[in-house]
């Protein structure tokens, strides 16, 4: 096959076939699969995005947008195509009293730092803020305030997109809603998000964070259900963690506040089995709280686990079958099945706050996220974990569950179709309308 020439592609940013850039774009956080692109384009403007998409359409190439590449299994990689890296498209534009206009390549950390200067915050933040705005809006974006506000894709006022046909378009719930609904949580298959307008609320100054430990996962979930119903906390999560004595089950909840108002600790911990000798209450600034994972990242960098393979499966289960599912996966699970710093993240969400059509969750009033943060010490262990993830997925589907496809669960075309369910038809129509030459991530395969 003749070597593809990119000489006709002029960008304000860069286009590179240099081996270092290719290696960068062939890797992701998951470290499980690596697909080699033909070239890496770094967009410095929305015009660059349009030029790349038009060039690709003319030359029969595929384009995969990439934010920060924190996907687990090749979601932002391209085979024999162009990786369109958006990380340099990262200006925070206007911040007004209730919204911000921001470029898609901006990280949530940079966005939050900018909005906090105005005493404002997005309603929903992911646990780790090193992800990009365009990246999480292309998948969903769940966090500890999701039980209140939905996922990040439920909190978008409008998007500027370059669609696969190389056209600039603005979309919102009222302007081209078909495109809006096909781009949010659409894994970059219809268009590239270049800019988003995101609603803001007053940021709390401080956070009272409470961790309570329970002997069983069932007890943790029972407390989480109660707190979800009561809406006692602003932030609601939980974890199953390895310990010398087996597994511990930690409720992780927070109340946000701004002095002089202050939450009453006794009221916050009333009737949730809080034991001052065992459990923990801490007081943090909102920024310290939002960036709480930074310390863990530094630790994982020192142990080498930040660069090791991360076969992280993310699943949603209906409340009614979550206990059965968690019992199934915990049965015989050893600490080494998660890896040295592994844990299982689990928390409930009421689905009435979820409005994004492509963010597929079980049909139930309450669902639980069950996400395993697995760390593999070798490629063969990563392969075993990925196989086990697939078994977990099959079992979850049998119990009415769905996958959150940012993770490392092998997904075939049929799985995508089943996953999209009733949204499949309108999504396929939007793909045909906005990306007629099939330039973008059209065959997004999650296979090792
Ligand atoms: C440490 C860590 C913690 C995490 N915590 C959370 C969490 O709390 N909640 C949560 O929901 N997720 C979480 N994730 C998962 C994360 O949100 C997703 O992997 C997300 O996609 C990462 O953003 P990114 O910018 O790295 O996207 P990438 O991996 O670069 O891309 C993700 C997908 O979106 C597409 N895409 C990227 N940018 C654009 C764009 N501008 N336009 C169109 N398509 C685009 C890509 O082609 C790809 O399919 C976490 C991941 C890590 C590594």
From TrEMBL:
**Pfam families (UniProt xref):** Cytokin-bind, FAD_binding_4
Give a GO biological-process term.
cytokinin metabolic process
Required co-factor(s) are: FAD
A molecular function (GO) held by this record is:
FAD binding
InterPro entries attached here? Cytok_DH_C_sf (IPR016170), Cytokinin_DH_FAD/cytokin-bd (IPR015345), FAD-bd_PCMH (IPR016166), FAD-bd_PCMH-like_sf (IPR036318), FAD-bd_PCMH_sub1 (IPR016167), FAD-bd_PCMH_sub2 (IPR016169), FAD-linked_Oxase-like_C (IPR016164), FAD-linked_Oxidoreductases_BP (IPR050432)
Superkingdom field: Bacteria
* Protein name stated in the entry: FAD-binding protein
């Amino acid at each position: 096959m003749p070597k593809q020439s990119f000489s006709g592609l002029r960008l304000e940013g860069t286009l590179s076939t240099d081996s270092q850039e290719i290696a960068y774009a062939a890797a992701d956080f998951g470290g499980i699969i690596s697909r080699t692109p033909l070239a890496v384009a770094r967009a410095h403007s929305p015009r660059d995005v349009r030029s790349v998409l038009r060039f690709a359409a003319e030359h029969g190439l595929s384009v995969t947008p990439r934010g920060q590449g924190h996907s687990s299994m090749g979601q932002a990689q391209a085979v024999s195509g162009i990786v369109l890296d958006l990380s340099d498209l990262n200006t925070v534009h206007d911040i007004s009293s209730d919204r911000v206009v921001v470029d898609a390549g901006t990280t949530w950390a940079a966005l939050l730092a900018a909005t906090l200067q105005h005493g404002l915050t997005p309603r929903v933040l992911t646990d780790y803020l090193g992800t990009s705005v365009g990246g999480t809006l292309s998948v969903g974006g769940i966090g500890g305030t999701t039980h209140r506000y939905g996922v990040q894709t439920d909190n978008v006022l409008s998007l500027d997109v370059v669609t696969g046909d190389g056209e600039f378009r603005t979309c919102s719930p009222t302007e081209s809603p078909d495109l809006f609904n096909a781009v949010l949580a659409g894994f970059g298959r219809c268009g590239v998000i270049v800019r988003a307008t995101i609603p803001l609320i007053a940021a709390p100054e401080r956070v009272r964070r409470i961790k309570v430990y329970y002997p069983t996962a069932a007890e943790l979930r029972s407390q989480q259900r109660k707190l979800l119903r009561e809406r006692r906390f602003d932030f609601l999560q939980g974890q199953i963690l390895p310990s010398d004595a087996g597994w511990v089950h930690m409720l992780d909840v927070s109340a946000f506040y701004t002095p002089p108002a202050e939450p009453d600790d006794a009221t916050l911990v009333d009737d949730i089995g809080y034991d001052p000798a065992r459990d923990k209450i801490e007081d943090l600034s909102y920024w310290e709280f939002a960036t709480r994972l930074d310390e863990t990242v530094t630790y994982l960098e020192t142990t080498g686990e930040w660069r090791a393979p991360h076969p992280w499966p993310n699943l949603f289960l209906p409340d009614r079958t979550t206990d059965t599912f968690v019992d199934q996966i915990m049965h015989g699970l050893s600490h080494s099945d998660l890896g040295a710093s592994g844990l299982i993240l689990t928390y409930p969400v009421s689905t009435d706050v979820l409005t994004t059509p492509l963010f597929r969750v079980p049909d139930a009033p309450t669902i639980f996220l069950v996400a395993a943060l697995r760390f593999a010490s070798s490629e063969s262990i990563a392969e075993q974990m990925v196989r086990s993830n697939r078994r977990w997925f099959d079992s979850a589907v049998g119990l009415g569950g769905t996958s959150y496809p940012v993770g490392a669960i092998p997904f075939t075309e049929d799985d995508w179709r089943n996953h999209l369910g009733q949204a499949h038809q309108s999504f396929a129509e939007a793909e045909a309308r906005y990306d007629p030459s099939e330039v973008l991530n059209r065959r997004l395969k999650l296979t090792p």
